[in-house]
Design goal:
single chain; 3-stranded mixed sheet; mainly alpha; Nucleotidyltransferase, domain 5
Length: 116
C-alpha cells in the first residue's frame, strides 16, 4: 500500500513543474483509501489529504480536469463546491524526514533497475 503513496508523491513532483499549477491539497477515494494510507500519503507529500465521499475520486478528478480544459467550469473554486469529503488527514512529518523516505524509495527503484 505504501508504494501507492510513493508513486503519487513522484507524480505530484512532476505536476508541480507545470507553470501556474498550484496544488494545496489532494482528494483521495476508492478501495485503497484507507486511513493508514491516507495519513502516510499526507505525511509523504506534505499536503492535506481529503478522503472523498465519492468512491471513485480519481475518475471524478479526471472529469473535473477535462471540464476545466473545455471551460465547462470557469475555475477550480466552482469545482471545489462539488467535492464532499469524509475526513481530512494533515501531514505530520518534518521536511527532512519526508525527504529521507523519498530518497530511500528512489534508491530502492534504482537498485531494482526501475529507475535509472
Amino acid at each position: 500500500m505504501e508504494s501507492i503513496a510513493f508513486l503519487v508523491s513522484d507524480i505530484l513532483e512532476r505536476l508541480k513543474k507545470i507553470p501556474g499549477l498550484q496544488i494545496d491539497q489532494i482528494t483521495a477515494g476508492g478501495g485503497a483509501a484507507r486511513r493508514p494510507l491516507l495519513q502516510f500519503q499526507a505525511d509523504l507529500v506534505g499536503l492535506p489529504i481529503r478522503h472523498s465521499a465519492i468512491p471513485d475520486a480519481t475518475a471524478l478528478g479526471c472529469a473535473f480536469l477535462a471540464g476545466l480544459q473545455i471551460k465547462f467550469w470557469k475555475d477550480v473554486q466552482e469545482i471545489q463546491k462539488l467535492i464532499h469529503s469524509e475526513g481530512l488527514y494533515a501531514p505530520n512529518l518534518a521536511p527532512a524526514e519526508r525527504q529521507l523516505f523519498i530518497d530511500r524509495w528512489h534508491e530502492l527503484l534504482k537498485a531494482t533497475g526501475i529507475l535509472s
